[in-house]
Amino acid sequence: MATVSSEPIVITAAVQKGGVGKTLLSTHVAAFLVSAMKAKVLVVDMDMSGVASRRLLLHDSVIPDDVTSNVECLEQEKWVPATSRLGIDVIPSFSGHDIHQQLHDLFSQDKYKLRHNIKKQPYDYIIIDGYPLLDARLEGCLLASDYVVGVGEPSTDDVQGFVDVWKRLKELSEAGYETPSHLGYVFNKVRGKSPVAFRELKKLVKSLGYLAFSNSVTQRDPIANACNESRLIWELAPGQARVASIELEDVCEEILEKIGDNEDNNTYKHYTADLGGAA
Question: What average pLDDT score do residues 6-35 get?
Answer without folding.
Answer: 93
